[in-house]
Amino acid sequence: MSEHATSRITAELSRRRFLQGTTLVGFGAFLAACSGGSSPSPTGAASPAPGDTTPPSTGPQEPTGPLNFANWDAYIDVEDDGVTSPTLVEFTETYGVEVNYANAQIEDNAGFVATIRPQLQAGVDTGWDLIVLTDWMAAKIVEAGWAEKIDEANIPDAVANLRDELKGLPWDPNQEYHYPWQSGATGIGYNSVSTGRELTKVADLFDPAFATKVTLLNEVRDTLSLIHRMLQAQGLASDNPSEELTVEDAQAVVDYVLPFVDSGHIRAFTGNEYLADFGTGTTWAAIVWSGDLASSAGPDDVFVYPEEGSNIWTDNMLIPKGAKNKYTAELMINWVYDVERAARLANWIYYISPVNGVADAITELDPEAGDNPLLFPPADVVANQHPLPNWSEADESAILDLFSTLTGE
Amino acid sequence: MSTTRRIRAFVDRWAVPAFTALVIGYLLLPVAIMIAFSFNDPPGRFNFVWGEFSLAAWGNPLGRPRLEDAITTSLGVAFVSTIAATSLGTLIALALSRYQFRGQGATNLFIFVPMATPEIVLGASLLTLFVATAQEPLRTLTGGALFPLGFQTILVAHIMFNISYVVVTVRARLQGFDRRLEEAAMDLGANEWSTFWRVTFPLIFPGIMAAALLAFSLSIDDFIITTFTAGTSNTFPIWVWASIRNNLPPQIHVIGTIIFVVAVGLVVISTIVGNRNNRAAGAVLAPR
Amino acid sequence: MRRPRWLIPWLLMAPGLLWLLAFFVLPNIQMVAMSLSSGTIGTGFQLTWDFDNYVGAFGRFPDNFRNSLVYGGLATLLTFLIGYPLAYGIAVRGGRYKNLLLFLVIAPFFTSFLIRVISWRIILGDNGPIIAVVRDALSLVPANFSIINTPLAVVSGLTYQFLPFMVLPLYVSLEKIDHRLIEAARDLYAGPWRRGGLVVGGAGGAALVGVLLFALGYADPSLDGLVGSLPAMVVGGLAGAAIGSLLVSESFVRVTFPLSLPGVFAGSILVFIPSIGDFVNAELLGNPKTQMVGNVIQGRFLQQNDYPTAAALSFILMAAILVAIAIYARVLGTEELTGGRA
Q: Are the Cβ atoms of A107 and B69 closer than 8 angstroms?
C-alpha cells in the first residue's frame, strides 16, 4: 500500500474548526442574516464572489423562488458564523431569488424518499425543487420517471466541467436527469492505539485479535461489495465486479460473515456511531466513510483505502417531478459547477468534487488540501475504486433478505 | 433492642429519600454529560470525543444552518399539541371513568391501539392521507387544508399520538375518585359546571399536569412520525438525527442544556412562588 | 332541559374520538388493505386478500418477537422496581419539592433522544468509567466484558427511556391516597412486614436475579447455567429478604399498595406498549441478535420496501399487545380499566 494512501488524520484541520472562530459578533451577523426566516439574505456578511458573477444567458425564462433545496448536513460552505453560506448568498444576489436551503433535511436515502414517494406517485408537488441522493437511489427515482428532465441550455458550466469518469452511467447515460454533488469513498477505519498495529486491507477486520471490536456498516451495498472484493482477493468468490454483484455473490458474503456475527466477532451493524466508539475503545476497527474520518475523530483514528479496493459513491442533484421552480433549480446546478465556487465548496465539505480543475483551484485556497488523499485520491487508489451495485428490483429484495439475516432485522 | 429500633428508624427515615436522590441522579447522568460536552471544542466535526474546554458554541448557540427554525417549530408544535391533546384526552378519561355506557369496553380498548401502533406505520399512513387531501375528492372536502405538509400536519400528528397517553395517565387519577365530593357540592347548590371547576378539576389536576408533561416530552422528542409529516419544515429531532450522519456540533448540546436549564428554572420559580402563596393562604384556610 | 344520560359521555369523548377517527383509523384502513396485498413497489400493490403475509410475518421472525416480548417485559419490570420507590418518595416524602422532583424525572427527556444515547455510549463504553470500575478496579467481570451492543444495553436503554412513563401515573395515584387511611392502617397493622417481607422479598429477589441472568444471556438455559447462577440468586434473595422485611411495612402492603394499583396498571401499560414496539434502542445499543420486531418493521418499510409484511407485522404486534393488556388487567383485578366484563 502506498504511503499516501494511508492518511493519518490529524487534528490540524484548521479550516474545519469553524466553530472556534465563531464569536458573539458572528452571532449578531447571524441574527441579521436570518431575520427574514431561514433563507439567507444578502448582508454585509457575504464575501465577494470568487468566480464569474454574470449570469449565463437566461433566455426568456425568469428565475422563480424561493428555491427549496434539500441536502444532507455539512454539505455546503458556511462562514464563521456557522450559518451564512457564501455560495447561496451570492446566488441570491445574482438572481434575486431566495434559497430555502434545507440543511440536514436528508438523513438517509430510503428514509427521505419514503417521505416524498406518495407525492411523486400521486403526481403532486413534493415541495422540493432540488434534492441530493446517492447513485443507487437516484437511479431508482430516474427509472421511475420521478425526475424532471434538466434543460442543457440552462447549465453550460455543468456540461463543460463535469468530470469524465462520472459521465455515462447506465441509468442516465446522457446526463439528462442528474448532476453529481460530491463523491466519497468507503474503506476501513481504525483506532491505531486500540489495534496496536496498522491495518491495510478488509481482511484485517477478521483478525481474531479484534474479536468483538469490529463493526460493519448497516448499508447493504457498502458492506457486501467491500467484503465480496476481499473474498475475491482470497480466491473465495466470483470475479463479478462490484457493480454487478449477484444474489449468489451476496450469499457467499453472508455465508462467510455469518459465523463472525454469531460468535460476536462483529459486534454490530451501525451508522457512523463508530466515531464515538473509536474514542471509548468500544470499536477498534470498522467499515467507514472517508469523509467522516477526514473531518473528525481523534488523532489516533485512521482511514485507509483497503488493498482490495474501496467503494466510490456519488450523491447527485435531481429535480423531483412537479417541482415549482425547475428553472431556478437548473440555475443552481450550473452555479455550483463553476470551478472556483466548486473549489470553495470542496475545501469546506471535504469530500471529492465532481468538477474538473478543482484540484488546481483549491491549491490557491489552501495548499495542504490539494495533497489530501481523501479529497484527491491518488491514481492507484482511483484505479481500484468501485461503484456501488445497482440491482434489479427482484435481486435487491433477495439480497436485502440475505443481508437481514446478518443484521438480525 | 433499642439499637435495632434506632437503626430501623434511621433506615425508615432515609432509605426512600436516598433512593429517590439516587434514581434522579441516574436520570440526570446523561444530562450532566451533555452539559459538559456543550463546553467542548471537539477535535473534529463530531462532538463525541473531549478536545478542550471552549465557550465557542455558547457564544453562537444557533450557529448552524436552520437550527433556529427547527427549534421554533419544535417548541411551537410541542406547546400547542400538549394543550390540545391534554384537553381532548382528559375529556375522554372523564367520560370513561365516570359514566357507564354502551360501547365503553370497546372505547377503553380502542384507546390503547394508537399506542400499540409502530410509529413508522402511523407516520407512513398519515402521509398517505395528507397526500390524498391534495387530490380529488378529498381536496374539495377539506379545502386542501392539510397540504402542503408543514407545521399544521406535524401538529395534527402529534395531537393524535398524544391523546392515548393522556387518557391513560389522567385515568389513573380518576380511578377510585370519590364521587361523593361532587355530589356534596351539587347538594350545596353548585351546578355541574362550577362543580367541575371547583371540585373535580382541582382534584384531578396533578393527573392532568403529569399527562401534559408526558405529552410535551413525547412531542418535543418525536422523530419518526414527524419526518413523514414535516414536508419542507424541520424540527429539532429531525435536525439532530440528520446531523449525526455528517457532523454533531456542540450547538446540539448547548441547545439541550438551555432547554433543560430554562425548564428546570421555571419549575423552581413556580415552586418558590407557589410555596409563598400556600403559606399566605395557609393563614386563611383550615389546615389540611 | 335534561340531556339524556347516555349522551353525556359521548359528547365528552366526541372531539378526541373524532380526531383519532380522522387521523388514526382512516389512514390505517389503507394499512389493513396493504397487509393483505401482494406485489412490489415497482409494479404496485394489489389487494389480493393474501393472508400468507400474516403467516409469513409470524413465522419468519420468531427471534425478533421473542426479543420484543422479553426486553419489553424486563423493561416494564425494571421500571416498576425503580419507579415505584421513586414515585412513592416524591408523592409521600416530597413535601413542597414534589413538583420540582417530578419535573426532574421528566426533564432529561426534553433533550434529544440521540444526545442521551450518545451520553450513555460514552459512560458505558468498553474503556468508559463504569466498565473501568467493575472490570479493572473490582475485577468483577472478565476482560472482554462489554455493555454496549449487548441485551443488557438494550434493556437498560428501554428502562431509562420509559422510566418517566412508569413514574408519572404511579405518582398520580399515590399522591391522591388519603394519609388518614395510612395512619389508621398503622394503628391496625403496626410495624414492619416481617414474615411476609422475608418470604416475598427473598423469593422475589432470587427470581429477579435469575430472570435477568437468563433473559440477558449471562446464563445458559441448561442445568449447568442454573447451577452457575445459584450464588447470584442467593445474593439476590438475601437482598430482597432484607428489603422486604426491614423497609416494607405491613400498612404499606395492606393499604397503600392496593390503592395504587390503578397507577401500577397504567404505568406498566405505558411502558410495555411503547417498549415492545421500540426499535431505536435495539438499533443504537444492540447487536444483530438483539433486534426487535420494531427493527424488522422499520427495515421492511424503509430498506426492503416490503410494505405488506411490514403492515402485517404491525397488526400482529397490535393484536398481541391488546391480548396482553386484557390478560394483565384480569390478573391484576383491574378489569374495569379496560372495559369491565367485556
A: no
